[in-house]
Design brief:
mainly beta; Porin
Length: 424
């Protein structure tokens, strides 16, 4: 687990490229993230390569990280003991003129772990998912200074999810006793493309303070093209009405105001507060949703190599839970509040301690669990010792806890690890 406040550049700024490799041993007491724990020892091998070039008006960077994870318990059970992950990051900054600047960034992830797949995304799947699951996050941002005090920020975000697990099951109706039902696949429930386009009007009130007002339009299209539920009223004699992935398609309007402020040389913060109105236009049985939208954060750099960050976000997000109630409404999504914090403390010039914590409180919208909650907590502690500029070691512990009204999904998980990293 990593703190959210971190630079893009490679560790050695004397050259434009950096190469590193990490070897860790670990013990995971619930690597399947299920109520029935399965524990395993194992090891991780993770090489990484990055390139960062700063030109006169342009900065470009790329980074690729590969992960190989070996689980001894799966080997003992005659299963494939190896998982592999890939992450490719690209960022490009270009100043067309002193007043026009653009930034393009993209991150492609192939993984199984929820913390990696949800890195910056808007999908809540707190459990481990087998297979080559793909997530892609892309952003294009244009900053324009029209006058010394007035500027605009135009932003386009694109999020793409593709889950490999595509097998679903269905059960026919038993008249009077039970309706037809579907156990949807993750591909049917969560494969999607989410796009948002926003415009901020910024006013520089003081050298340390900027106020802004903005509007954002968002659209979510579910691309699984699979059966996800049946709508069949009592007494379950009439033909069941099938509902497909695109029944959860929606669009949202956001309105918000906010500010960024530098309190001191080493303390800064920002806040955004507004509303989000969402309509599920492909499902006439679902109700529209109006709720809060926003974020707030503080970043404090209190010493050389030491900083702390706290924040909160509020927004809607997709969920893998798809159930239908007696009124024919399926679970559409969640309204989630996320509170997070991290601290990176230089205990000595060579020993650094890191602590991170995240808490997500989610409310289901529509379906049998309408207005009921799910809670997801993750914490991590890490000690890293740098022997020299090329070699370091770390020792850490991660904890996660998930509880929800949906049966069979609660779990706790503890992971400890010890590793070394070589970099050049």
């Amino acid at each position: 687990m990593h703190a959210q406040y971190a630079p893009d550049a490679p560790p050695d700024n004397s050259k434009i490229w950096a190469l590193s490799g990490t070897l860790r041993g670990f013990y995971d007491d619930n690597y399947t993230t299920t109520p029935q724990k399965q524990s395993s020892v194992g090891f991780e091998v993770s090489p990484s390569f990055s390139l960062n070039e700063a030109l006169q008006q342009t900065e470009i960077g790329i980074r690729y990280t590969y992960g190989l994870y070996y689980y001894q318990k799966r080997q003992d059970d005659g299963q494939n003991p190896i998982d592999q992950t890939h992450q490719f990051d690209l960022w490009l900054d270009h100043a067309f003129t002193p007043r026009w600047e653009a930034r393009v960034s993209d991150s492609v992830i192939v993984a199984q772990e929820p913390a990696l797949l949800a890195n910056g995304g808007n999908v809540s799947v707190p459990t481990r998912v087998e297979g080559n699951n793909i997530a892609n996050y892309g952003t294009i941002k244009l900053n324009t200074d029209w006058t010394r005090l007035f500027s605009t920020t135009l932003t386009y975000n694109n999020t793409f999810y593709d889950y490999e697990q595509s097998t679903y099951t269905q059960t026919p109706a038993i008249p009077i006793f039970s309706p037809a039902s579907v156990n949807p696949s993750l591909a049917g429930a969560l494969n999607l493309v989410e796009q948002t386009l926003s415009l901020n009007l910024n006013w520089l009130a003081e050298p340390e303070t900027t106020f802004f007002i903005g509007y954002q339009f968002g659209i979510v299209n579910y691309t699984g093209n699979q059966l996800i539920a049946y709508n069949q009223p009592f007494p379950y004699i009439s033909p069941a009405i099938p509902l497909y992935s695109d029944s959860r398609d929606n669009y949202s309007h956001y309105g918000y105001v906010g500010a960024t402020h530098t309190f001191t040389e080493n303390l800064s913060g920002n806040i955004t507060a507004g509303v989000q109105y969402t309509t599920y236009y492909n499902d006439p049985n679902s109700s529209s949703a109006l709720g809060p939208y926003g974020s707030a954060a503080l970043i404090y750099t209190y010493a050389q190599g030491s900083y702390a960050q706290i924040g909160v976000t509020e927004s809607r997000n997709a969920t893998d839970t798809v159930n239908i109630n007696s009124n024919g409404q399926i679970t559409q999504d969640q309204e989630s509040t996320v509170v997070y914090g991290s601290i990176n403390h230089a205990i000595t010039p060579k020993l650094v301690g890191t602590a991170v914590a995240n808490y997500q409180y989610s409310i289901y919208h529509d379906g049998p669990y309408d207005s009921q909650s799910a809670n997801f907590v993750t914490t991590g502690l890490d000690l890293a010792y740098t022997f020299n500029q090329h070699l370091s070691a770390d020792l850490g512990y991660d904890f996660s806890w998930y509880t929800t009204v949906v049966p069979g999904q609660d779990y706790t998980r503890n992971v400890i690890y010890l590793g070394v990293t070589a970099s050049y």
